[in-house]
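Troubleshooting log. The previous structure file for this entry was overwritten by mistake, so regenerating from the original sequence record. Sequence copied from the archived sheet and checked twice against the printout by T.R.
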Amino acid sequence: MLLTGVATRSVPGLLSMLIFLTGAVLCLASALCMETESALAHNREGLELLHRGDLSGAGEAFRDAIKLEPTFAEAHLNLGSVLLESGSVDAAIAEFRTAINLQPGAIPAHLGLGKALRKKEDWIGALREYETVLEHEPDNAEAHSGKGIALQQTGDMDGAIRELRRAAELAPRSGPVHNDLGVALAVESNRPEAIKEFQQALIFDPDLCSAYNNLGIALQEEGKQPEAVKQLRKAVDCELRSATAHYSLGLELQEKGDSDGAILEFRRSIQLNPDDSR
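Regenerated output below.
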């Protein structure tokens, strides 16, 4: 009786306490959900701004997402991409590594880190990232391409060309991949095949300015002067502020005996890049 009476008298108090605690948990969960949703919204905002080309605005949106959700791997990845595009390579590397620590299987983060390490000329580090990607995705064209570029810089030309050919097989309509393969072939003095790759690059990506320059140089080395000048002029028109394009055109005009034209191009190249020792 006594026990029953105590139990009966305690029910309202217990119910009140349970209601209070449940409400507190719901409030906490609601606050956490709101923060997560807000972080997602900032991340989506950043992606939209990035799509519009607003790197600064996108970076701020991704930072806001990270402030609300520090373990948001995708936001760290996206911020790393913005920083890399903006030239802040060290900061980009830090963000990519954070994303990988939070989500080790994040393929885009490994690809981004590989690209950033190439910017730092850390070829071994870049190779490690691309090989990690290929362990999980053997047919990842970007990883084969990046690995090929890194191998070329380490002096393994056979490996570089093999990887770049595989990338071209996997991404046959990628202008940059064909261009990179052409560069590797040109280094190995396989200019006829290099020329074909540069031409393929421009078929798929007519705005790829470096391919015009590379094609012009390859044609020049093959003794096809008129066509070389034509491509080098396209390179200059494509990227008016490219010191390399003006310099290459100057060399070709000099070879043709057009001294005035060559001097004009060399001067333009110097104006654009006064520290170039060439």
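The radius of gyration is 28 Å. Archived copy saved in two places this time.
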